[in-house]
Specification:
It comes from Alkalicoccobacillus plakortidis. This is Flagellar operon protein. The chain is built from four helices and six strands. By secondary structure, the protein is an alpha+beta fold. The protein has one domain. The strands form three sheets. A two-stranded antiparallel sheet has the order 1-2. The chain has a two-stranded antiparallel ribbon with strand order 3-4. About 9% of the residues have low confidence. The structure holds zinc ion (2 copies). One zinc ion binds next to helix 1.
């Protein structure tokens, strides 16, 4: 069965396969990825920031975020090319949550386990963004 979804970038309806964006935006994202990679190769400065990338390549913020979140733009070589934790909005090198949020989330989990006798499992899931999500599941 075909599943319709709204494209994350343009909001248009499309038939969802794996990607969170429509074909047109996906192609645009690929183009941006090439542009960014070329720029980073030429620039070879590990001090490059998101702002510099946006100023110099004109990549829209949403595409830049999407490339980082999907892991296609690797942050490891460019420590200043950070993006923001989805939970506390602090700059982080991780794809979704910063280290302290991951720790806090784990802390909440053990709290939960102490307080209740329900068994709790931390389940790793893949969302459309190909990144990992942690979900609490209660087993009764
Ligand atoms: Zn689109
Ligand atoms: Zn955080």
């Amino acid at each position: 069965m075909q599943q319709l979804a709204n494209c994350r970038h343009c909001g248009g309806l499309f038939v969802k396969v794996h990607q969170p964006t429509c074909k047109k935006c996906q192609m645009e994202e690929e183009q941006w990825l090439k542009t960014i990679r070329t720029y980073l190769k030429e620039y070879e400065d590990t001090m490059v920031t998101q702002q510099m990338l946006m100023d110099n390549t004109k990549i829209p913020f949403k595409f830049l975020q999407s490339l980082i979140r999907s892991g296609r733009l690797k942050l490891s070589q460019f420590p200043h090319l950070e993006h923001f934790c989805e939970r506390c909005q602090k700059p982080t090198q991780e794809t979704r949550f910063c280290h302290s949020c991951v720790n806090e989330l784990n802390g909440e989990l053990s709290h939960y386990e102490e307080g209740k006798n329900d068994k709790v499992t931390l389940v790793r899931e893949q969302d459309d963004n190909q990144s990992l999500t942690y979900t609490l599941k209660k087993n009764r």
